């Protein structure tokens, strides 16, 4: 039986209602698990599903092929773009600007199964049900499943949607992480033409509205007891890289010392979405920073030769709070002096452990461990004096970013977060920090950076050289379309989808690139359970949450499309 073309709000409501009744959280969870199997390790939903699906890897390719099949089965034509898939379901008036549902399908290293994936799977499910029910609608629906949203692989967040809505610059294409190829090289290796990503695929006259469904990535929504969030603004990161020291030569000094491995057990989390403070975040770099500073002092006090090497943050990414961090400390000198230094280091570790474990805290009882190791000596060392000064400054910068951002965290209700998210030691002995400062208010964010930079100048008493570069992935905060925010509220109310919160997103999203291209854009959030865990395998939303989110999405799409 053919549907009569629905007209007016009442008909629209009835169509929406019919569609919403068929949306099932269990179905969505099943699809999300299928996608999670690609690059994933599924132990137990709700407890531990680990997904690593970085842009332009074999997992990315496998995900594209899975989504291609799903989109086609759901009734869409599929276009393969270098930065993802574009599913199209034509409306009866294809000349009208389309309604777009967008999200991403790449992940951070060792992330969870909902970030990005929910918006992609949810959007495809909405179109599948529209087609299955033979509902007629006027505007074409476009499902954009983008890759390279996370900055994990190329130090370049939201690169995919930036390419799709704005086109990429040569500088953005040159973005890379140490030891990996650049974004441009990755595109070429996949056989894409770089000219195809320098101009936008979508312009504002093609798209009537863009909607993204996403997990909230923090505990706010769960704590508020509400099931949905309507996003009115997106905070954006101002990311900078701080390169400490000039290249230096390698030396053998310190090779014959006693080796200690200092390990910190923090807890990884989303650097944008996790509020400041020890009760919310256990930043693994903070205890390590204390240690770097203490070790430097030790070198002066005890007449032992101290070297620090192998600075490491496990599975680090620019948008991830460092979890596990470690370094190697080498002490050389007379046996008695080494014993004394060792005791001081251990005592200091215990003292800091007590401080970090004091409630309220996210740190475990034994955040820091110091083990003497019979490690094979590293092939080389850098001049200990230069490297120690660099370690000290790195430690101080980590502390400064944390304390200044913490001070502004609730400034005029504009939540600011700031994190040293990445730390690498180059082959030339330079220490490179990636710093991510975010907020919804550009002025406040600028203010935080200003204060951080001034404090670094003050503490850098030994005048270690350092340079600061702005990183791609930095953005201005974005406002969502207020008319769409009202419509999003209306569909939640009309369909009794429960209590909702008008909120903002501390984390960046593809939606901000759509909004900045002049396309009216809005986002729905569902709660992130497990205390808002995100970018980690504990990321979780219940089947009910998924269902409620997809219903809000479906209702708004129908209302905008008919
Ligand atoms: Zn995401």
TrEMBL record:
The keyword Hydrolase applies. Signal peptide: none annotated. Pfam families: Peptidase_M20. InterPro entries: Amidase_Cbmase, Bact_exopeptidase_dim_dom, Peptidase_M20. Keywords: Hydrolase. GO terms for molecular function: hydrolase activity, acting on carbon-nitrogen (but not peptide) bonds, in linear amidines. The keyword Chloroplast does not apply. Belongs to the peptidase M20 family. This is Peptidase M20 dimerisation domain-containing protein.
């Amino acid at each position: 039986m053919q549907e009569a073309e629905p007209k007016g709000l009442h008909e629209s409501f009835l169509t929406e209602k019919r569609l919403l009744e068929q949306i099932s959280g269990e179905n969505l969870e099943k699809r999300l698990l299928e996608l999670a199997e690609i690059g994933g390790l599924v132990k137990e939903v709700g407890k531990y599903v680990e997904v690593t699906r970085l842009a332009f890897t074999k997992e990315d390719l496998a995900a594209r092929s899975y989504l291609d099949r799903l989109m086609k089965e759901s009734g869409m034509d599929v276009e393969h773009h270098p930065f993802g898939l574009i599913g199209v379901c034509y409306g009866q008036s294809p000349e009208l600007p389309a309604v777009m549902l967008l999200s991403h399908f790449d992940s951070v290293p060792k992330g969870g199964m909902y970030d990005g994936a929910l918006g992609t799977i949810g959007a495809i499910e909405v179109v599948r049900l529209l087609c299955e029910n033979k509902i007629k609608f006027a505007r074409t629906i476009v499902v954009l499943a983008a890759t390279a949203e996370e900055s994990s692989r190329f130090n370049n967040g939201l690169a995919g949607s930036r390419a799709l809505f704005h086109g990429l610059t040569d500088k953005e294409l040159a973005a890379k992480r140490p030891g990996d190829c650049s974004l441009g090289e990755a595109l070429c290796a996949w056989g894409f033409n770089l000219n195809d990503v320098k101009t936008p695929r979508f312009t504002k006259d093609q798209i009537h509205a863009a909607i993204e469904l996403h997990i909230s990535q923090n505990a706010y929504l769960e704590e508020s007891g509400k099931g949905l969030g309507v996003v009115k603004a997106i905070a954006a990161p101002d990311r900078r890289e701080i390169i400490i020291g000039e290249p230096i030569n390698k030396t053998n000094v310190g090779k014959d010392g006693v080796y200690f491995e200092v390990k910190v057990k923090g807890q990884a989390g989303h650097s944008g979405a996790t509020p400041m403070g020890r009760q919310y975040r256990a930043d693994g770099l903070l205890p390590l920073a204390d240690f770097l500073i203490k070790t430097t002092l030790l070198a002066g006090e005890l007449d032992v030769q101290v070297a620090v090497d192998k600075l490491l943050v496990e599975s680090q990414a620019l948008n991830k709070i460092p979890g596990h961090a470690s370094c190697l400390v080498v002490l050389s000198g007379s046996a008695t002096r080494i014993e004394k230094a060792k005791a001081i280091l251990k005592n200091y570790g215990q003292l800091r452990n007590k401080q970090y474990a004091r409630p309220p805290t996210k740190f475990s009882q034994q955040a820091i461990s110091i083990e003497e190791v019979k490690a094979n000596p590293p092939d080389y060392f850098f001049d200990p004096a230069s490297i120690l000064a660099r370690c000290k400054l790195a430690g101080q910068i980590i502390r400064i970013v944390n304390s200044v951002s913490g001070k502004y965290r609730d400034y005029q209700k504009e939540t600011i977060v700031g994190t040293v998210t990445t730390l690498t030691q180059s082959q030339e002995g330079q220490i490179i920090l990636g710093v991510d400062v975010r907020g919804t208010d550009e002025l406040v964010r600028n203010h935080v950076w200003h204060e951080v930079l001034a404090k670094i100048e003050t503490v850098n008493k030994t005048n270690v050289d350092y340079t600061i570069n702005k990183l791609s992935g930095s953005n201005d905060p974005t406002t969502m379309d207020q008319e769409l925010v009202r419509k999003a509220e209306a569909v939640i109310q009309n369909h009794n989808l429960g209590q909702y919160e008008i909120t903002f997103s501390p984390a960046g999203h593809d939606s901000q690139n759509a909004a900045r291209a002049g396309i009216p854009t809005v986002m729905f959030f569902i709660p992130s359970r497990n205390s808002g865990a995100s970018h980690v395998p504990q990321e979780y939303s219940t089947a009910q949450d998924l269902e409620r989110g997809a219903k809000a999405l479906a209702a708004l799409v129908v209302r905008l499309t008919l």
